[in-house]
Here is the input.
Amino acid sequence: MGDNLYTLWCKEPAPNHDLYVEICSTEYGRSTNDKTMKKNNVTAKKLRDKGNELYSKKKYHDAMAYYNQSISYAENNSEALALAYANRSTCFLNLNLFQECLIDIERARIGYPSSQMSKLDNREQKCMDLMNKIGNESHVREPELSFNENGMHPGVADCLKIEKNSKFGRHVVTTRDLEIAQTILVEMPFAFKNEPIKPDHSMQYDPFVDKSRIIQHDRSGDNTFGRCMYCYVECTNLIPCENCAGVLFCDEVCMKKAYHKNDCQMADSSRKETLGMVLRMLYRTNDAFPCVNELMTTVRLLLDGNNVNWHQNDDQRNFSLIFQLPTHSGHQWSRNLKLTRTVTEVIYNKVMRLPDFKGKFTSSTHRRFLQHLILHLFHVAEHAINASEYWRESDDQNLGTFDVRTFGNGMYPFGCYINHSCTPNVCWYFVDHRLICRVIRPIRKNQQLFGFYFPSTLCEHIPHQNRGLLLEYHYFFKCKCKLCLNPNWSIFTGKDLSEGPLYEKAIEPTWMDLNEIRKLTTEELVSYEREAAKFLAKYDRFHPVKDTMMMQHQLHMLWNTFASRR
Here is the structure.
């Protein structure tokens, strides 16, 4: 194995010039420290008790997160599992999720103490009565594209395309004028990995972030156990793996699509964020290309700058887009490159113990290729988009006081090509693990789309100098938007646009609490959206100023709120 760190896709000298240089040792048969998280009824009871404490405070979502954890740790067909299902059913009942409540009641009947079975019967009857009285309608708005779908890229509007030039590299442009509030992406990820909300993953430890903006979260707010660990649907009847603890899925279909059979054998490492993302991309790529030689041919064509999309299926096209993202390996410190190489070796030795890989990558040529593919995917994983949601302590909070928290990261074949600007013209939010991209400034034909790489639409949350350092440190570029080119510009010293009926009407939802927001009819919501869009279009020439940014922020929060089941 060579000492040169910059060896990605380099080949051996003659006469072995068809063989990629070795970057990993081939000790994949050795033992590792992977340990499957074991089920334990004692742990399940402790988690259930914590859920009961939160339930008594009417924090039903947080209580459900602990009941979910209890379900994942409870032993199969045990009383502990039945009690956890029963307790979770009460959360669903209080959240008016009646179908989900009935499903959990039925699951709880297996193993539930016979002396207490009448509690389940009474709860079932109450649930049926409430469902007949107020119905089981959801406030969630299912996202739809505002245009026809691109024939080559599912979930992408047909007016978007990827172009390439020396200034921006590959980037997304529109082939027609776009108006505020139009939906241009409803994209599934190529790979997605949950990110637990806990202190060591918080921005508070990033030296560049203004720590006064960071709000502390305890484990009860962690959405790791609030969503399916494949499709990331929330507030649903999650089920556990029968063999290990710590994971939950909608059903067996999601469990299979998440490649949990593989993860079950390497539970600890597969749940680490970066390793987990690379593994998921690798599993998806392996499935997309049943033939190793076809995959190698595709990679060789992509490295030579050729277009291979015309003959590929959806998964292969998505791989090709992900693969062509910049690796930035030449910009990284040697310390980071050494760490990347070490982690690549860890992943390589893990997957080569799996039958799907060991039986497929059989020759030296194939195995060396796999090593470089893993290293390449590790580098492009830096482009993962943070999946965030608006979060509140209670439903009585005004919309404008909600906090932002990240629940995962996704590799989106088209979305990852949208470049950053501190004055973006599009924003994104998430419905389960789907990336929804909507327009927040007028965009003219042939103009580029720009998003905001931080988990908020309000750039003043991160001071100018800190934003620049973050972008250079993590993404290796300098932003040249209006705010960054004019460091003395302040959004608070621009024109005051808050006077007048248009602003006053459009900004009203900011001062509503969640209960009031959820009572809005579709017509009322559309009306607020329309007024906000009129305001932003009318005053776009003054952007960015406080009032235009607040209006963008409100639209983003409204869309996010109606995308969530919470």
About this structure: Residues 197-221 have pLDDT under 50 and may be disordered. The two ends are 51 Å apart (CA to CA).
